[in-house]
Amino acid sequence: MATTYLGADNFEQTVTGNDIVLVDFWAAWCGPCRQFAPVFERASEQHPDIVFGKVDTEAEQALAAAAQITSIPTLMAFKKGHLVFSQPGALPGPVLEELIGQIVELDVEAALAEERGA
């Protein structure tokens, strides 16, 4: 599955309507963003069951501000509508693959219950 363009009109619906969503916040002028783009694209092809979305922070400034993006690229991961990962910086392919594996294995309900109980 190729990456999906996300904007203010479809971001929330995409995040809440899919099991796992990875979002790359990027800009065309950003060198590290351009380096990360093919890594993100390859991962999207290897994991057709996961939604890979891209947010152009220049075109979607209000969305980037709402997501508190201060550095790009920033990768966010959502599972069952909950933010489970957020980190600025371009990840190498093997690190992204490891992260995807951890997100797939994550029991988000148990993590949320533990967080509420803590």
UniProtKB/TrEMBL annotation:
CDD domains to which the protein is assigned, alphabetical: TRX_family
Site (Contributes to redox potential value): 31-32
Organism: Nocardioides pocheonensis
Domain Thioredoxin, residue spans: 1-105
MF-aspect GO terms: protein-disulfide reductase activity
Residues flagged as site, Deprotonates C-terminal active site Cys: 24
Active site: residue positions: 30, 33
Pfam families, alphabetized: Thioredoxin
Similarity comment: family membership: Belongs to the thioredoxin family.
Keyword Electron transport attributed: yes
Keyword set includes Disulfide bond: yes
Keywords, ordered alphabetically: Disulfide bond, Electron transport, Redox-active center, Transport
Gene Ontology, cellular component aspect: cytosol
InterPro entries on file: Thioredoxin, Thioredoxin-like_sf, Thioredoxin_CS, Thioredoxin_domain
Cysteines paired by S-S bonds: 30-33
Protein name (record): Thioredoxin
